[in-house]
Design goal:
alpha+beta
């Protein structure tokens, strides 16, 4: 078809390896439980595999597992963090003093902790004022499910490293003019999990339970395949986080509420990418295939864990929560890591950029902040 497919970038090892920190990593066995799971084989480049075994040997490092931070504590001025309050596995509440606080929770929980701690002005979608909770963005995925009579697949051989991608419809790689949307994404023949229940695809019209469903699962388990699209998502004024006025967690803290739906731009993009993917799948010669683009309204089923925004980085404290070093404009001894800082969501996963920003912030902390504590960028 004239495309230029390439292997999906992956953090899985093909052979045993000892990393620069001395951690011994094993070769990937394609276990089928790569996505969403830690790696018991030490084959996946995640922090608990590649870095934590070295850190725990340092005398000045301690990992307190199964604890949960309740809030970031501030002094009377509200301009300096004094530490955090957390709960341990026994339900005991502790205060951990600190001269420097790095907020490294998952993106959603970063924002929730900032809101619960009263750091930064909460975003108001009506006035567009405020910085905590704004610029939330998701990703836009879709799929084409194909069913074959003459091909056998092993759905349990699954890992990011066996994927192949087509990038001709991502970002500025193509002319958006005739299509009525901006952005884009990649097309992928990727298989990142072999979870038994989620891998049981059946053709449209099959009952959702009972004998006929079981027969369809048995017939199609080894002869079906799901190709996917993976697209970006713009931030919008009406997509944001705030604290829920009604619901609380087990500690009595307000849960975080997400207000979000896809806009016309994302729906047009999803339809276009899915149509292009279907053309590729049709070349594979399936018995039948089903296109599953995102549709609106409220077609916001779980797609990926790559959510972005809520406390974005920028040059103006009026429209951003963090400066270019991921330092809080309001509390200079607080740095916030992760995709929380992203003002938009691109067609690729944010992981590599999150890692790059973490290195960037760490370098600024060591070589600038610790030598002269205070704002690294003047507002």
């Amino acid at each position: 078809m004239g495309y230029k497919p390439f292997p999906q970038p992956s953090g899985n090892l093909s052979q045993a390896y000892t990393n620069p920190l001395g951690v011994i990593l094993g070769p990937c066995t394609y276990c089928g439980f790569c996505e969403w799971f830690g790696c018991g084989n030490y084959s996946k480049a995640s922090p608990q595999t590649t870095i934590l075994p070295t850190l725990v040997r340092f005398p000045n490092f301690e990992a307190r597992t199964q604890c949960e931070v309740l809030k970031i504590n501030l002094d009377k001025s509200g301009k300096r963090a004094t530490g955090v309050t957390y709960v341990d596995t026994s339900g005991n509440e502790w205060e951990q003093p600190a001269d420097l606080v790095l907020l490294c929770a998952f993106q959603l929980f970063n924002v929730q902790l900032l809101l619960l701690s009263g750091i930064g002005k909460p975003y108001d979608p009506n006035s567009s004022e405020g910085v905590i909770g704004r610029n939330y963005s998701y990703q836009v995925t879709s799929s084409v499910d194909a069913y074959f009579d003459n091909k056998i697949f092993n759905p349990f051989i699954a890992s990011g490293s066996i994927g192949m991608c087509i990038d001709e419809f991502n970002g500025d790689n193509f002319d958006h003019g005739p299509h009525g949307f901006v952005g884009g994404g990649y097309l992928g023949a990727v298989q990142t999990n072999g979870r038994p229940l989620q891998s049981t695809r059946v053709p449209k019209g099959t009952p959702r339970w009972g004998l006929e469903w079981k027969q369809a699962v048995a017939k199609n388990y080894l002869s079906s395949y799901q190709a996917v699209t993976h697209g970006g998502c713009c931030s919008y004024r009406d997509a944001y986080f705030d604290l829920d006025p009604t619901y609380t967690d087990r500690f009595g803290r307000k849960l975080m509420r997400i207000t979000f739906d896809f806009h016309e731009n994302e729906l047009k993009m999803s339809q276009y990418l899915t149509d292009r993917l279907a053309e590729v799948v049709q070349k594979m010669g399936p018995r039948q295939f089903e296109k599953k683009p995102r549709t609106g309204p409220y077609d916001t089923v779980y797609q990926t864990t790559h959510t972005c925004g809520g406390a974005i980085m920028g040059t103006d404290p009026k429209s951003s929560a963090l400066n270019r070093y991921l330092q809080s404009w309001d509390v200079p001894n607080l740095f916030v890591m992760g995709a929380t800082a992203f003002p938009q969501n691109a067609g690729y996963n944010p992981t590599d950029t999150v890692g790059a920003l973490a290195y960037w912030a760490a370098d600024a902390i060591v070589n600038q902040y610790l030598k002269s504590p205070g704002p690294l960028v003047q507002a």
